[in-house]
TrEMBL record:
MF annotations from Gene Ontology: dioxygenase activity
Domain of life: Bacteria
Keyword Repressor listed: no
Taxonomic placement: Bacteria, Pseudomonadati, Pseudomonadota, Alphaproteobacteria, Hyphomicrobiales
Transmembrane helix keyword on record: no
Protein name: Ring-cleaving dioxygenase
Domain VOC, first and last residues per copy: 7-132, 153-272
Sorted UniProt keywords: Dioxygenase, Oxidoreductase
Biological source species: Neoaquamicrobium microcysteis
Coiled-coil annotated spans: none
Length: 311
């Protein structure tokens, strides 16, 4: 049992237009852009991070905006919905706000007794806002949404799988327990004290075709551990269980390991350290283009090549 895992760390997705992506998360959802950097493996592509004031693990939505990327096709073997936590009684506010800004796919529903508002991102991304009581995580309030309504961080991710059995067993190994079931959806939550982003839903859809990754698709979902020592413990346990796990990779703002789940979703385990203020003052997070050391020599080219982003 991997008690080191305390919930979600971040979710990383694909997009086709950096400016549109930035506008959606900072202006429509009111999140803070906490880092403007580039893809380690494709430095001519941004890596944009949106979160609360500090980029607290459990609040961080990140994107690789590949210019003019083809839209993904929804299906199994992927995260279908990324859900954010908002205070109880605020869905009417959010429904009006998002409708006024032309956000598509607005739909109210109830799942496991929680009121939720589904909506789509610019590339058809699946999102939801979920009303939660007593989520005391601090919200970013300089993005045009007041403290009484603002997003607190992640609530959950929902995976669509043709067969959820093996992934359910993996989640139990990763310190999750099954707490509820509704139709084809099983809900898992972190055992003990999590970081607030504690829920994973697994929807089993045996006749649905496999997803095709593209703009609007989730690339991977990352789980949080406190530090590198805890991460190495997790890596050792996963390897001993038979998973093919990458070596530890330095991602500047956290260390990461990756492995593919039985259902096809790519999982990452990321450290809470060192954080997004390692190379920028907290007051100015996400303003300047930050580059990994190995790509710093490309700065003149990248600054002239990458699409300008306001804010």
């Amino acid at each position: 049992m991997l008690g080191q895992i305390k919930g979600l760390h971040h979710v990383t997705s694909l997009a086709r237009d950096a400016r549109e992506n930035n506008d959606f998360f900072t202006n429509k959802l009111g999140l803070r852009r906490v880092k403007k950097t580039v893809n380690f493996d494709a430095p001519d592509v941004y890596h944009l991070y949106y979160a609360d004031e500090f980029g607290t693990p459990g609040s961080v939505m990140t994107y690789f905006p590949f210019p003019n990327a083809a839209r993904g096709r929804a299906g199994t073997g992927e995260v279908g919905v990324t859900a954010f936590s908002v205070p109880r009684g605020t869905l009417a506010y959010w429904e009006q706000r998002l409708a006024d800004q032309g956000v598509a796919g607005l739909k109210r529903s109830d799942l496991f007794g929680e009121q939720r508002l589904a909506f789509e991102g610019p590339d058809g991304d699946g999102f939801a806002l979920v009303e939660v009581d007593d989520d005391d995580r601090a919200a970013w309030t300089n993005g045009g949404v007041g403290a009484d309504e603002a997003i607190r961080g992640f609530h959950s991710v929902s995976m669509r799988l043709q067969d959820g059995g093996a992934t359910a067993e993996l989640l139990k190994f990763m310190n999750y327990e099954e707490i509820d079931k509704s139709g084809s959806v099983r809900r898992f939550a972190v055992k003990g004290e999590g970081n607030g982003a504690d829920v994973i839903d697994v929807e089993t859809l045996p006749v649905l075709s496999h997803a095709r990754q593209g703009a609007g698709s989730v690339h991977h979902v990352a789980f949080a551990v406190e530090n590198r020592e805890r991460q190495l413990e997790v890596r050792k346990a996963l390897l001993e269980t038979g998973y093919q796990v990458t070596p530890v990779i330095d991602r500047d703002y956290f260390w990461a390991i990756y492995f593919r789940t039985p259902g096809g979703v790519l999982f990452e385990v990321a450290t809470n350290e060192p954080g997004f203020d390692r190379d920028e003052d907290t007051a100015h997070l996400g303003e300047a283009l930050r580059l990994p050391r190995q790509h710093e020599h490309l700065r003149p080219y990248l600054e002239s090549h990458l699409q300008p982003i306001e804010g």
